[in-house]
Specification:
The chain has 482 residues and is of the alpha+beta class. 74% of the residues lie in helices and 9% in strands.
Length: 482
């Protein structure tokens, strides 16, 4: 293409400036409404998450209460089982003591009516044994009556002296109790045998034998008492140790269960916290996801690929953190994305206003060129610039670029085929009078629309009384890099 490119910086007219200010305010208001809508949606989603979390906590509380109820029921069942064992042991002891009273009653010699009353009382107590009743006092009261009645009967048969001694010894054996008999059966039987021999010696002519056996019986009773008591104490202590061991095992089991429950509760709380944070990040992403995608696409359309890349990278940071389950990173990334979106939408609004300004200027230029007899041969958007082609009836072509340079617009003309456009600039300066006059008329037609005001048309090597202004940055870039 011959000749130097010609350019002109274009400012907006006051009327268009007011129109553009109104557009900017409208876009700002739309952004505020959109952000308010997002804030409402975020609040609604947060409220829903709070309700769901409250429901989960209520379910967890109910589950904890259920577990505590089950634990209390198991504890009560163990206590009841222990009480049942105790009652069973007590019942067995009562049965043995009643059996001993029955044996004593079987040896009593007395009035039939009195024996019958005592036997009826014995049968009554036997019927009550096993009903978790405390029969100790009643059994001992019955034992005393039986022993007393037996003593009276023997006094009648053998005289008060030997009978009283024998009754006292038998009473001592009875008082030792069934526990000693249970734990020292051999000693108990030895006492019974000796008492039988002593009873046989209590008759006439047995005084010497009675006295000889009396010390032996006393010694046997003492040994039986000691052995029975010691063994009973050992058995009782063994039972107590076993019960303590069982209780310690139960407490250890309950403590371990409580610790495990606490650990599980802590893990569940941590999982709940992470899940809540991930849900919050996902919800916040859901609020802005479509707007983010739209902003990235619009940035590409408005020739700002760097902005589009930043938006896509921020979105990928959020989705990557969510996929990895990194709650803290996801919240940080989604907050950064929200902040970037606000700035990106403001930037895109400015780019859109600049695009609209270029399109309006291009339309004014096209109308003016057509008014000067040009034919429009086509146009396209290229990297934030609008490139348009025009042709005169003479065959000369005008490739016109509409762009921006800061707040101003720039018109760049590349002319080919005009006779006053030389291939190389004249050393003293080149003259493009007819081409310049034509473009000046075009600019005057643009001014008449009251939208834009083109500045002086200039080019490199223009002959004039003053040095031409330096080309705008955008004009130099378009010229030297095309």
């Amino acid at each position: 293409m011959s000749g130097s490119p010609k350019y002109s910086t274009v400012t907006v007219a006051p009327a268009y400036a007011r129109l553009e200010a109104e557009r900017r305010r409208a876009r700002e208001a739309a952004r505020r409404r959109q952000e308010a809508q997002r804030a409402r949606e975020r609040a609604e989603r947060a409220a829903r998450r709070a309700r769901e979390a409250a429901a989960r906590r209520e379910r967890a509380r109910a589950e904890a209460e259920r577990r505590e109820t089950e634990l209390a029921a198991r504890r009560a069942a163990r206590q009841e089982a222990h009480a049942a064992r105790s009652r069973q042991e007590q019942s067995g002891a009562d049965v043995r003591r009643l059996a001993e009273v029955g044996e004593l009653l079987g040896r009593v010699r007395g009035q039939d009516s009195e024996v019958r009353v005592l036997r009826e009382r014995l049968d009554l107590l036997r019927g009550r044994a096993g009903r978790a009743e405390d029969l100790g006092a009643a059994i001992e009261e019955l034992r005393g009556r039986v022993v007393l009645l037996g003593r009276e009967g023997r006094a009648d048969d053998r005289g008060a002296g030997h009978g009283s001694v024998l009754a006292g010894l038998e009473e001592r054996l009875a008082r030792i109790g069934p526990e000693a008999r249970e734990h020292d059966r051999q000693g108990y039987q030895r006492c019974l045998d000796l008492l039988g021999e002593l009873r046989a010696a209590a008759g006439p002519g047995g005084e010497t034998r009675f006295r000889a056996l009396l010390g032996t019986v006393e010694h046997a009773l003492a040994r039986h008492t000691a052995a029975g008591g010691e063994r009973a104490a050992e058995a009782a202590e063994e039972l107590r140790r076993a019960e303590r061991a069982r209780e310690a095992a139960r407490q250890a089991e309950e403590s371990a269960a409580a610790r495990e429950a606490d650990r599980q509760a802590a893990e569940e709380a941590e999982r709940e916290r992470l899940a809540a944070a991930l849900a919050e990040a996902a919800d916040r992403l859901g609020v802005v996801r479509q707007a983010v995608r739209d902003a990235a696409a619009e940035a590409v359309e408005l020739a700002d690929p760097g902005l589009a890349e930043r938006i896509e990278a921020a979105l990928a940071s959020v989705t990557g953190a969510l996929a990895a389950g990194a709650a803290a990173d996801a919240l940080t990334a989604v907050a950064a994305l929200e902040e970037l979106l606000v700035g990106a939408e403001e930037r895109l609004d400015e780019l859109q206003l600049a695009y609209t300004r270029r399109m309006d200027l291009a339309q004014a230029l096209q109308d003016a060129m057509l008014g000067e007899g040009f034919a429009f041969t086509g146009g396209a958007e290229q990297d934030g610039r609008l490139v348009m082609g025009f042709e005169r009836p003479s065959g000369a072509t005008y490739r016109t670029t509409v762009g921006t340079d800061g707040e101003d617009a720039v018109l760049l003309y590349q002319v080919d085929g005009e006779p006053d456009v030389v291939l190389r600039p004249d050393p003293e300066g080149s003259v493009c009078d007819r081409t310049e006059d034509l473009l000046e008329r075009v600019h005057e037609a643009i001014v008449s629309r009251n939208d834009f005001v083109p500045g002086e048309l200039t080019w490199r090597g223009k002959r004039s009384g003053e040095q031409p202004p330096k080309p705008p940055t955008a004009a130099r870039e378009w010229t030297w890099t095309r």
